Structures are given as C-alpha cells and as structure tokens.
Amino acid sequence: MAVCEVCNNDYDMAFEVRAAGAVHIFDSLECAAQRLAPTCDNCQCRILGHGLQADGRFFCCAHCARRRGYTQLVDNAQLVDSP
After folding, report:
1. Concatenated DSSP letters for 41-78?
2. What is the pLDDT of residues 38-78, one digit of tens each?
3. How far apart are CA 4 and CA 28, in angstroms?
4. Cα–Cα–Cα angle for 41, 47, 51, rounded to 5 degrees
C-alpha cells in the first residue's frame, strides 16, 4: 500500500501523479487537487479548469482577474445566437 502525501491515508488504491519532475502519491483526486492545483489570486479557490494567467498570477475566471486590475483577460465562453 502507499501513503497519501496530503492526508497520510495508507490506501491500497493510491495513485501516482508525475508533475514538474516530481512524483506524488495520493489516495483521491481531492488530495491531488489540494496539493497540485494553483490557487486563484483573488478568491483563493483551487483552479481545477483552465483558469487564466497574467504576470505570473493565476485566476479562476475573468471576473477575478478584473477584480485585480487585469481587464484584458476574458473567459473563453461566448454567447451564441440560437437559430
């Protein structure tokens, strides 16, 4: 069995994640996200999707980026007129 590096659970179904040249052991996706996912510089939520970056700062959405003065960033979602 392997021990999760976040919660220390000794779990027979733990898995490895290789990121940035390091090997990590987790027992769940929640623990993996807690350790590896970047944090929004505005609201401090974990960024589990694509997110946005500016000047080395991470944001979960364009709204949070605008709150920190990065008005040039936009979300990729677009409104499309329906037929």
Report:
1. TTT--B--S--EEETTEEESSHHHHHHTT-TT---S--
2. 999 999 999 998 899 999 999 999 999 999 999 988 876 66
3. 8
4. 80
DSSP 3: E
- Residue 11 and residue 56: Cα distance in Å, rounded? 36
Those residues with Cβ within 8 angstroms of residue 25's Cβ, 6 or more apart along the chain or in another chain = 2, 3, 4, 5, 14, 15, 16
pTM of this structure: 0.76
What residues contact 17, with CB distance under 8 A and at least 6 apart?
23, 24, 26, 32, 36
CA distance 55 to 62: 14
